[in-house]
Amino acid sequence: MNYLKRITCMLCAAALALPVLPSQKAAAASSVTISPDTTYAANNGVFEGWGTSLCWWANRVGYSDSLSQKAADAFYGDDGLRMNIARFNIGGGDDPNHHHITRTDSNMPGYTVWRNGRFEYDWNQDARQRNVLLRSIEACGDDMIVEMFSNSPPYYMTKSGCSSGGDNPGANNLKDDMYDDFADYLAEVCLHYEKDFGVHVQSVEALNEPYTNYWGKNSPKQEGCHFDIGNSESKIILELQRAMNQRGLGDVLIAGTDETSIDTQIDAFKALSGDAKAAVDRIDTHTYGGWKREELRDTAIAAGKNLWMSEVDGGATAGKNNGEMGAALWLAERITIDMNGLNPSAWILWQVIDNHISKDGMNGNKDKGMVNVNGGYWGCAVADHDNNKIICTKKYYAFGQFTRYIRPGMIMLRSGSNTVAAFDPETGRVVVTAFNKEGSAQDLSVRLSGFEKVGSSAQVIRTSNSESWAELPAQPLDGTLLKVSLAPNSVTTFLIDGCKQMPSPTDGLDLLKPVEVTGTKSWKEQGSTDCYKAFDGKTNTYFDGVGDGWVCGDLGEVYDLRTIGYCPRSGYEPRMVDGYFEVSEDGSNWKKVYTVTEQPSAAMHFTRIDGGVKARYVRYAVPSGAPKNNVNKDDVYCCNVAEIALYGLPVEIPTEPPTEATTEPTTETTPPEPLPGDADDNGSVELADAVALQKWLHGTGTLKAPELCDLNQDGVTDVFDMALLKRLLLS
Prior knowledge:
Number of helices: 12
Oligomer: single chain
CATH superfamily of the domain at 84-311: Glycosidases
Largest sheet: 8 strands, parallel
CATH architecture of the domain at 84-311: Alpha-Beta Barrel
CATH class of the domain at 84-311: Alpha Beta
Structural class: alpha/beta
Shape: globular
Strand order of the largest sheet: 10-9-8-7-6-3-2-11
Number of strands: 33
Strand content: 25-35%
């Protein structure tokens, strides 16, 4: 296909770029600590990107090569949002005798047509959405990720005979004998796009907000099909897995189940059969409803699944005296809430264009026209068909404050408050995007913890009522602290280059497990929040201790303690400020080794103990009385901690030197005692023994005395003995 030369979207930057406002009185202050040690758990912290569904807007603009190219450049090009994820809608296609779909963009064509007395595939269908997809792939480049998803099966596979929904919107609408047919349909479309259009399909999704009662017959749009949680959703997932495998597409990820509510997504995943859970490679969720973001995150992590926020948008606003920034601030706040709560590896807007300007409309239906830029609206841009252009709103530019700088492949860092943060280990760049929805300036302090080196200043890019992606004067850092004042009703991105991650504080150390955990009583003596929860390996459980509280881990013997990790109870992070860790060898004499001086984020934090310390008992405790800091507003210090992790090495106990002989030596000589680890039986343990043992384990050498290398005396000489021999040599 010959593509037009890229025509980029005109970016409306203000003539005057105002500096950051350090002199204005701040309405409120926020403080966050970010660290390369505290990353998102999903996808090992690696960010996959930002995106949008192409349904339905691409179906509307794709008739025009010029408008399609401008859209591709505005949303996926270097001069635009730089998104890299496209969710391509595999349309079901409605009964051609139906005329109830009145939205000009929503009548998605299917790939099968009635011909010669049967349904046959017609790959000329859906040319408009495909036109936008192929141009967007070219505009994005190698980072592009394509997910195929379905809103509805073809109308003839449904019980209602309508792709808009069922006669009963709360009941299954796919015919009971059509699960395999629907799965084959989706897989066949994926195969065709892979083979004939050269589109690499990363993932496929058979469901869209399935467990709802929204999708009824003869509605004005084609958006969903009801599936009950449990058996119905499990069945279509397994049929889709079968259909993809049969076509050699087993490497395409299967996502599920794209429920509209976070809370419903948790229930739906838990209700899947064991086989269906295993088939799901990634949990996709929408965030239109529900509040249990942390629980869904922990559910995905516990199941070993990746997690995407695959769809949300809304027509709301945020902020005070916000002008055109109202919708923009709503979007920035939603992104921040989702990222900090779910910790997903991708965040995807429903559709970037929801409104169209056209005097002619389409298929006899009228378009909605221009949005009210001073109010709330769906989408972040408007397609002007009459003037062949894409109109970019403040919501578009606010989105770009995230998408243009937090890039695929970066490591997402746990943050909080009004910020989202990421780190690129290859380039040494830290990115922090923050919003301020107040009508006056807001102070922000960002502490960069866990970095061996940080840059001396931060580049500043801002969108506000008077600016769009405005580049402002750099902000200096005070050591590892960035202190700024956020302009009223603004979204600002800070780029800090020259950052280098410290070596891992746990490298080369053993995770030390307490043999016994003791502590003070928990709040109302609830067993679910007892002290042992602080050492259960889970950050979503916690010890809910009260005043003068403490929790102690007994390691069973003395260790060389080198690193302490801790995670605050989510939502109660200020309670850890002024809490401290102390150690003891005997349980009576204690030494304080670390005090939490700043409010931590709800993630694991690690502190090294210089030179290490001998410890059998490690105790976390809080001071007595009322808090003496400006972040903890409780009446008394409360001992709240979600998780404690201890790292160190065994203490080598020196052997006593041999005593001098008190009797005359005899003339008889006795052979020396065999030395454990003396692989060549030459009377000494040295590096040559380790080399010989390693070759023997790899089958490339022989040992004179392999039995002397059985250091753990389990009757087998293996890699565990090799590790013990290395430790013996190091000591």
